[in-house]
Amino acid sequence: MLDSLPTGSSVPPWILSDMQALRAEGLMREPLEILSRSPSEITLPEGKLIDFTSNDYLALAHHWVCIDAAQRAANDHGCGAGASPIVTGHTSLHRKLVERISAWLGQSSSVLFPSGYQANLGVLTSVLREGDFLFSDAHNHASLVDACRLARARVFIFPHLDVSCLGTHLARSPGACRRVVVTESLFSMDGSMAPLADIAEVCKTHQALLVVDEAHAMGVLGPEGRGICAEAGLFPDLLVGTLSKALGGHGAFVSASPPWIDYLFNKARPLIYSTALPAPSAAAALAAISLVQSEEGASLRASVLQKAQLLRSLLRDHGILFSGEGSPIASLSFSHQRDATKIQLFLRTRGILAWAFRPPSVPSGTSRLRISLSASHTEEQIRHLAQSIPLALAEIGAKPESPEPSCQ
Ligand SMILES: *Cc1c(COP(=O)(O)O)cnc(C)c1O
Fold first, then answer.
1. How many domains does the chain have?
2. 258 pLDDT more than 70
3. Residue ending a domain, choose from 236, 263, 293
4. Which ligand 1 atom sits closest to the C-alpha of 55?
5. Which of 47, 212, 341, 374 is the most exposed, having the fewest neighbouring CB atoms within 10 Å of its CB?
């Protein structure tokens, strides 16, 4: 892209050298051009590929009920919300959606954010002050990492899933400060699950607030797809969920008790100073939650988990073990930064798109191949992937690391 600068324009030399360094390390990112998408396939200029990259686990993004709801909302309210929710961006559809989310999750109230990234920034930056303490799992999503940076609190990163280390450091922090522990429930990169009951216990002991980000679990795991907190019978102080993954749409929410929700509506700058979630997205999410609660939702959940299981068992026969057992995420970690990209390119030649994650999404010097399963994948597509992965590993001469043991 840098080659096509208009003549006469100049950029600071450090931009060119930074980009050169990214290229040299094989870390340059450029967007793919998706010409069209169906629930399990995407079409690129090079042709059609089976899509194992989407977090649309239940294939609701293309469900006619969601599309129909979004179209009707666009007719009534327009494509965009026009203003922040604190001005005129909050419609009757938004009100219905927060009521529906709260009823579904058994929570007393909820508030919408335009995205999960903003929800995480909004929660942590409004709850913590300078000098407070924030404890964050080492594998937390970049939106939580950025929220920690912006929150101005003293941040302690605890080793992935390590509750006893968390407890030790909580015990050392002075009681007069606000203390917040933040973790994902189902971790996005490797599909590991947080030991939520133990974390909640340690928070209670040390009077820390617990924030759980259920971005990847909401809709797909737990009873009625209500997530891993629901499965554990746990109500964190603040529960963050997205509408953009298993719910197939866009946007996010935070569920908590009413004073918390009023507080966020008044204090969370990423909510206040950003245009509200568009009404069509609210309508699509309403339809998606109805589907998730229906028998159809139950069978979609069973289907995606069974497909993930099929992939795991086919590859176990080749001695290849994925992390993410019990989730729709199957991932392989490599101790070489370029391995996952090489595998991704090999798989593309076999009509498959799986995603290679490189630093800074994963630790420096490593890479990760992440496969997202969907209820819409056919058994044939999964078998094709299962045959292709061992070929890719052999071709590249790469050996995945053994998955870290999960706490649950
Ligand atoms: C995707 C993701 C987010 C961000 O959600 P968006 O709605 O895509 O902005 C936040 N947290 C986690 C754990 C995620 O995986």
1. 2
2. yes
3. 293
4. 1
5. 47
Cβ neighbours, 10 Å, residue 46: 11
Nearest CA, atom 10, ligand 1: 116
Across 92-115, average pLDDT: 98
- Residue 377 corresponds to which amino acid? H
**13-24: average pLDDT:** 94
- Say how far apart CA 166 and CA 172 lie, in whole Å: 10
Is the CB of 115 inside a 6 Å radius of any atom of ligand 1? yes
Asked whether residue 346 falls in the same domain as residue 275, the answer is: no
- Tally of CB atoms within 10 A around 26: 13
Q: What average pLDDT is seen over the chain?
A: 94
Q: Which of 232, 259, 293 is the last residue before a domain boundary?
A: 293
Residue 382 lies in a domain: yes
Q: What is the mean pLDDT of residues 115-134?
A: 97
State which of 188, 357, 361 you would mutate to test the pocket of ligand 1, scoring each by most atoms of that ligand within 8 A of its C-beta. 188
Distance CA 374, CA 200 (A): 31
Q: What is the CATH number of the domain that holds 43?
A: 3.90.1150.10
Is residue 408's pLDDT more than 50? Answer: no
Q: Which residues are catalytic?
A: 55, 141, 184, 188, 213, 216, 245
**Rounded mean pLDDT, 91-120:** 98
Q: Residue 404: its pLDDT value, please?
A: 66
Residues 237 and 361 in one domain: no
What is the residue range of 374's domain?
Answer: 33-57+295-396
Q: Is 216 in the pocket of ligand 1 (CB under 6 A)?
A: yes
300 and 286 in a common domain: no
Q: 246 and 304: one domain?
A: no
How many CA atoms lie less than 13 Å away from 250 in the CB half-sphere? 10
Positive or negative, the CA dihedral 294, 296, 297, 303 is positive
Whether 23 is in a domain gets the answer no
Q: Read off φ and ψ for residue 183, nearest 5 degrees.
A: -150, 155
Residues 303 and 211 in one domain: no
Confidence tier at 7 by pLDDT (50, 70, 90): low
Answer whether residue 25 shows pLDDT above 90: no
